[in-house]
Amino acid sequence: MQDLSLDEKLTLLTGKDCWRVETLGGKLPELFFSDGPHGLRTVKEGEHALKATAFPTLTVLASAWDTALAYEMGELLGEEAIEREVDVLLAPGVNIKRTPYGGRNFEYFSEDPYLAGTLAFSYISGVQSKGVGTSVKHFAANNCEHDRLFQSSEVDDRTLHEIYLPAFSLALRARPWTVMCAYNLLNGVYCAEHEKLLHKILRDELGFDGVILSDWGAVVDRAKSLKATLDLEMPHSEQAFSVLKAAYERGEITEEEIDASVERILALVRKAEEAKPLRTVTHTAEERHRAAVRIAEEGAVLLKNEGALPIKDGARVLVSGKKAKTGVYGGGGSSCVDSAFAPLPLDELLKRENGTLSVRYHEALFHDWGNLYGLYGMRGAVMRAAECDVAVLVVGGDGTTDCEGCDRASLRLSSVEEEFIRAVAAVNKNTVVVLYGGSAVDMSGWIDCVNAVLYTGFNGEGGNEALSRLLTGRANPCGKLAETFPLRADAALGNGFYNRYSEGIFVGYRGYDARNEAVQFPFGYGLSYSEFVYSDMTMSETGGEFCISLDVENRSERAGKEVVQLYVGQKFPLVTRPPRELKGFQKVALGAGEKKRVTFRLQKEDFAYWSPALDGWRVEEGMYTVFVGSSSREIRLQQQIKLSQRGPSQRDPQEE
Ligand code: GLC
Q1: Cα of 474 vs its chain's centroid, Å
Q2: Domain closes at, from 521, 540, 565
Q3: How many domains, the chain?
Q4: Catalytic machinery residues
Q5: Nearest CA to ligand 1 atom 3
């Protein structure tokens, strides 16, 4: 660094253009950034985005509750980055789904920080195993799109530490090359220039020593952002150099502060340069596509099934809804991917999957809905549904309803879609709804009149192949919701100036459970074609570590997978706490009739809460309950334990 002049150092502190770090006239090698979390949106200057594999969105990956799958998706994204000479993938987003109205929820993992952070750790590890960097984003408390450039998230310290930081903290254990700061303000200060957030918390408290880069255009005062230790302003900013030069000459920023950021940027460039010769691509585009199908399969959530699924051999099937032809690869905004893979129509795939089926497609909902042709479409579909054994209706959101830069206008389907579902269900008792959506959907207008619902998020280029396997039973649904589907929800989008996080730590199931509030489908919920039974829970403790074991048995004739979830709750806390919080999960594959023992380990810090009084984590002595369940509300087994300074002791297991 010593051979860089001050001007060169200041030049380095903002991007060369939209996607690259400055090269100082060739003194430094190129470093290239590219979106996005579920596929490469690689834009070379003046060109269209290059085509790439459209993997399922992170909502779908999260619904698979599978760290190995998250790692694999990361690896494959890393390989596509290599093929496009991308050095840092601007992903993953780990913001918490505070409200189901969030426009970018499809890009994020969960309402729960433990699940989000655990999967992000695996995803980042996968990408970086290929010598490609990541950028965990958007730091922090960027939980809606409403006025995202100007609105201040008003969050108390305990909520920040227990809800909005832990996913980043867990992700940082994978040592992401960069962290991207958010657009919004946090408690009145822009994240991009938030000394406490970036320096005291991210660097000192969470131990991040890499490059902090801005979200694109997130820097307002470049000198203040430098002092807060934001290293790289993206994209290139014409006035950055002069602003920094003037601030330096006025003594507002020091050479030491400049050098610190320059050194971190140079270290990033060196890291990428050293990784280049070691990068390897070992999978073909076809293999990446097959993986996209598998992720879509594992991340689909069967929410209701009164026997219509799996579709039986020889059935007469009606498929209706434009999305049956096109699928919905992703949502709108910077994460969108231009896939090279043309969608395969679901009706065709059903026939291919099971040759005994007689499958007809009938378009029913036309954009110019009001005209006679549109009415004919719906009436025609209803008439055909009456003649079929099973009616598969493919409905829901897409990039127009779930998009970066704006929040969802409604949690419901369109009135036309709801009317269509009710009309078909009235004539066919085996009506199956395949539901697209980037986040929770309010199904109250029709859920009771249909036989089955398969929620499929935005499931990438392989979505219809996955759906055809799931609907015919060639694949067994095993997904679990990574967010609550509530019966009612406050949009909680703020007033454009500030967004007061008045619910505090009671986000998602933490809140619904604390209020004993009924929900449509709880966090962690998902059905299967198999039936799983939990038994024989035991707990032991050695040196302060708890080992919890139990048996899980597949009581069906069909192989399947179960996501066993472990929650912890304190019985008589000195401070208000949620009834239970996720502290572990295991996905177990079980053949027909097979039983396996599943084991969890808990450390003392898994019982902690953030104490504003102590300005740190605290574990209180006293009684705790360890819950094991197939969702946050289907607790199958539980056991009490007592934590004391002398160490824990446990009581007899209780079956709920
Ligand atoms: C966008 C997004 C961010 C993305 C970046 C580059 O505004 O907020 O997630 O990586 O800009 O496209």
Answers
A1: 26
A2: 521
A3: 3
A4: 215
A5: 215
